[in-house]
Amino acid sequence: MKKAIIVLLSILFFEASQAQNDYDLNFKVTQNDIVNGGAFKVMVQIRSAGADFKLGSSNFRFNYNDNRLAFVAVTPNAANTFSNPPFYSPITGTGSGNGFVSINITLGFPGFGSTVSSSWIDVAEVEFTITDRSLPGNFDFRPLNNTAGNSVGFIDDEATNLGTAGTAFDFVNWDGSVWSGGNGVSGAPDDTDGAKHLQITSGVASIIDEAHVDRLSVASGTTLNIDPMAGTNGALRVLSDLAIVNGSVYVNADINGYGQYIGPSINATVQQYVGNNMGWRHLGFPVSGAVNNLSLGGSPMNYATSPSHQRNTFYFDNTSFQWTAVPNSSWAPANSGVSVFVGGVYFPVTNGVISYSGTTNDGAQSSTYSFASSPVGDPGYDGWNLIGNPYPSNIDWNTIDDQDGGSVFTSYSVWDNGVYRSWNGTVATNGGTRYIAPGQSFWVKSTGNNGVSFDFARADRTFSGGNAFFGNFKKASSVEVISLTVTSPGGLTDETVIYFPAGSISGFDPEGGDAHKPWNNLPNSNLYSLPENSDEKLAINAFGPWHVDARIRLGFSNDSTFGKQHTIELDGSRLNTAWGDIYLEDLADTAANWHNMGTPYTFLNDSSVTENRFVLHFKPKNFSVEELHVKRNYRIYYDEKDLMLQVYSPFIKWSIFNSVGQKIAENMAEQGKHSLSDYVQKSGVYTLQLEYKGFVRGEKVVILH
Predict the structure, then answer these.
(1) Dist CA 228 CA 230 (whole Å)
(2) Model-level pTM?
(3) How many CB atoms lie within 10 A of CB 35?
């Protein structure tokens, strides 16, 4: 029969008539070496379960299984855990034989403000030696009694801290040479071992596949590696909140990828592979603490305390919209991202690997974002925020709910050494995906809110998405899109995407899928589209339902050296055949030749041409290219009873003929909306003839008054 560990409680009251209040006791395991002869330590914690805690003094005694554990010592917590000094006395502890331990707490007088927090407070650490780990040892905390004049004692708060007998069914064990008890290869853990306790009892263990376990124990002097391998990557998920790490845990990375960890906070070293090419890296922090938890593998991290030309560690101040040197090594990132310059002769990274050492983040996390205007005066630059993935695992952008009374971000972008990779929840540019890697920071654009939190939850964490750090994204979208890529003379590329989801509109609509264009630095070019009736620059354009008359404006920018050859290419593998041929109109081409994007289009960047120099057109089979030259530059519609002409190009000549062919009006229409109702006041059939760059097209209009 299992021998239970029972808490016995006796309480001395300063004033028997004083109203008593509930409180909780908890034992938090701080060390479990698992093996016989190893240490087992618990932190005794207390918290208020009701109003203020107003006992005069108390003593509690708890039993333990002395066939399993041998008492060593009680170490009172030295911190001032109760308010308010001097109305309490330090805690004392006395260890006893025969299977029980006594701990004394002396508080101040009732009514003088002595309180116990509603959060857990560390009281004292009790240390044992494990004499027989196969025996049971559950801790049960229950009220001694609840009679009149006695406070309710320790409210039931149970935890199976030591586990049951170490059978193969209950445990997955590494003994220093072999795995046992797991369902994976050679007894190693896999994703079907979710009810088992993973324990490392000796030596160095490695996980190279995905493993799910209920609990984790890493004994003192041992090491657990979660390793990337060619073709596979280690990932460990601990399903409960029970993880006791007294040895070392490494979540490793190399050129093959990176390991991942999902579970309660543990002390670990988390790596990420960033390579050793010279350039800036935008990094997030998967561990809590200060920026000095990050190591660049031998490369220095120079802060604001260094000369200005040596500083290589910056954060983006989203309230002032500028890069600011990190002040010192104790600066806390608070889930914002940092930009660190690495590579080359002066900032080499050993084996291309950076590492974060500290307590891994778990549970709900948040980062405060703001809206600020950029110094250049272009609203397209305003409101950007750099936020870091706070976890040592991938996060799924499509599950993040950041709607904390603020902007709803439908898209994000990641900097990759000169180009931005974007994702809007459905489609991507430049190879972005829905998954954000550990150690990765990303950009979101606020639409005007200040001081609002961007929230992460446990449910956002995932092992899906492969290894998606920096340039390792893969194009995963199966959505039918128009994907256009511009290639600069040096071989650098940038992509913009247009697609036609149901429910979206042709105007600017960030909630419908429009994703702002983050600006690539020179010498990279920038290719983007613009929504109707707006100059917002878009990386991803959710244009609205496709229609044959759609004309989509494109912008291009490369200001480094004019007169250089660039090429725009259409990805033909992601198109809908119903769209027909796609033509590119270059407004800088005075010959008005439209280019069929079945082949790449080559052009020179020109300082005399505005950024918005291209227009995309669709050519169904029943249209000639000549007709399209006119058709794509106007729209005829009714606004209530008014006949309206919408002109997209700088000038279109229009003429109106009555039913017998007589011209009754003509004019040149500038870009914009024009009413023609004054010329067609009588009911009848009219012909509206439009001419653009020498091409003519006629439209029949029926007027009924």
Answers:
(1) 7
(2) 0.63
(3) 16
| Angstrom distance (rounded) from CA 442 to CA 385 | 8
Average pLDDT over residues 689-705: 78
Do residues 449 and 385 touch, judged by C-beta distance below 8 A?
no
pLDDT of residue 478: 54
Q: What is the CA radius of gyration of the chain?
A: 34
Q: Report the run of H or E that residue 629 belongs to, with start and end.
A: helix 625-631
Note the residue count of the chain: 705
- For the segment 26-64, what is each residue's pLDDT rounded down to a tens digit? 677 788 777 788 888 888 777 665 443 334 445 666 767
Q: Which residue has the tokens 């264009």?
A: 517
Write the CB contacts of 133 (distance below 8 Å, at least 6 apart in sequence): 34, 35, 36, 68, 162, 166
Q: What is the 3-state secondary structure (H, E, C) of 230-282?
A: CCEECEEEECCCCEEECCEEEECEECCEECEEECCCCEEEEEEECCCCCEEEE
Token pair recorded at residue 468: 């998606």
Question: Residue 687: exposed, middle, or buried by beta-carbon count in 10 A (0-12, 13-18, 19+)?
Answer: middle
DSSP three-state, residue 572: helix
End-to-end CA distance of the chain: 97
10 Å Cβ neighbour count for 460? 23
Q: How many CA atoms lie within 13 A of 459 on its CB side?
A: 6
The more confidently predicted of residues 139 and 229 is 229
Q: Give residue 136's pLDDT.
A: 60
Report CA dihedral (653, 658, 660, 661) to the nearest 10 degrees: 0
Q: Which residue, among 158, 194, 198, has the nearest Cα to 174 in the 3D structure?
A: 198
pLDDT > 90 fraction of the chain, expressed in percent and rounded? 26
